[in-house]
Specification:
The protein is 72% helix and 0% strand. By secondary structure, the chain is mostly helical. Bound molecules: fe (ii) ion (2 copies).
Length: 240
Amino acid sequence: MTLDSTQTVRDIVQKYPAAVPVFEALGIDYCCGGTKSLGDACEKQKVPLDKALKDLGEALVVRPQKDDKRWTTAPFGELTSHIVEQHHANAKRELPRLAALAAKVNLKHREAHPELDQLRELVDAMRSEMSPHMLKEEQVLFPRLCAMEEAASNGTSLEPAFFGALINPIRHMMSDHDDTGALLKSIRAVTHNYEPPADACMSYQALYHGLSDLEKDTHLHIHLENNILFPRALEFEKAH
Ligand SMILES: [Fe+2]
Ligand SMILES: [Fe+2]
């Protein structure tokens, strides 16, 4: 394995899924900002390139790829089911729970911590952003990809989709991902990197903990779509 500063963050996580927790720990955006080179991503995040290369090298030696599912070759049906069952299910469970918790914590602690007003609004915005987005993927885009794959393997042809070429819905989904990524960045800033204040009660701590987990899961979720599923789908469309 050789890594250098010119490789894109996306290429690195595609090839080495064990790089994901390293990028998470360094704050390097590997989902929406995945097309940047490692050098540029480090510069943007003010992480020394040497440190990133060292951390990546260690993670890739300690945890080789053999346990990681290689989503770069799995059928679309399998990959989209994984996204829906793991990541959409997690977001659908966590977003209403965290929105209710943010409202409760805000009500109790807003006087001492006025930033909780903004946090509640941001969590509500995440929920309003992600819910219709996931529905569009589940009801329109993902079934289309599965149907394309099935038609190709049966040697049959498909009616053209109402949305035209795949790039149209994919562009739309990627723009939604950028919006979600920006909301996550704002949540991270308002919560001071998910660090609850010294006087935080259990609910306050649980809220920050839940939001931090949601960020990790959403980064992985967007990574699987932006960096793996969508490029594969566009390639598939070109080839068939
Ligand atoms: Fe999704
Ligand atoms: Fe998505």
